[in-house]
Write a structure and sequence with these properties.
The chain is an alpha/beta fold. The chain contains eight helices and six strands. Strands 1, 2, 3, 4, 5 and 6 form a six-stranded mixed sheet that branches. The longest helix has 17 residues. The radius of gyration is 17 Å and the shape is globular. Bound molecules: iron/sulfur cluster. Iron/sulfur cluster binds next to α2 and α8.
């Protein structure tokens, strides 16, 4: 499959958009440089370690998936680059067998103890893009998983449902409209989000009260 359209929305933008559309605007569209917190630096290092530990593979993703769906035992694939004509992203880890597919996204859950709805939307977005790219997998039960990036403890898992596609595409349309200047990015009205927001020091809507 050839990647031809560079005007795509990152699947990770769904996470920022659900958390706060204005944060998505600052970080993904304006691409402002955000000073990393210690927790974020720890997470980046943990992600990098997992990537470094993965067995290098010279085969392309289509070849890997075509073979994995024939096997009883799951094939782990780290860093799978997936895309449709409107979205693109890299799945932290995929486990594929002929019985079951698991799509894993690593997040800093042990730091916060919270499973954010925005993280669920993002990992569902990966499942949607992956299954769109590989129709051969659409009849295999597919599960979305959120895993703690430091401890590798699995924090949340659910079978992917096509009922989620409406929410994903609705979010995608709004993100595209914000990107294209047809819609303003509204700030969240959830004060706890602002307090935990990594770019609140840049945000004109942030108030400490
Ligand atoms: S401080 Fe609040 S309003 Fe501003 S970007 Fe962060 S979450 Fe959004």
């Amino acid at each position: 499959m050839i990647e031809t359209n560079s005007h795509r929305v990152g699947v990770s933008w769904l996470d920022n958009w659900k958390f706060c559309p204005y944060k998505m605007y600052l970080t993904d569209i304006l691409r402002l440089t955000i000073i990393k917190t210690v927790e974020q630096l720890d997470g980046i290092a943990a992600h990098q370690l997992l990537d470094d530990m993965a067995i290098p593979c010279k085969e392309d993703l289509e070849t890997l998936v075509s073979r994995a769906v024939l096997l009883d035992e799951p094939t782990p694939i780290r860093g799978a680059r997936v895309f449709t004509d409107r979205m693109i992203g890299i799945i932290d880890e995929l486990h594929i067998s002929k019985y079951r597919i698991r799509i894993i996204d690593d997040k800093p859950h042990s730091k916060t103890g919270i499973i954010f709805p925005s993280h669920k939307l993002q990992v569902n977005g990966y499942a949607y893009v992956f299954l769109s790219m590989f129709p051969i997998c659409q009849n295999i039960p597919t599960f979305v998983v959120l895993r703690d990036e430091l401890t590798l403890a699995e924090m949340w898992e659910l079978e992917f449902s096509y009922n989620k596609v409406g929410e994903i595409l609705s979010a995608l349309t709004q993100i595209e409209q914000i990107r294209d200047g047809a819609l303003d990015a509204t700030p969240t009205n959830k004060k706890p989000h602002c307090r935990g927001c990594s770019c609140n020091y840049l945000c004109e809507y942030y108030t400490r009260s």
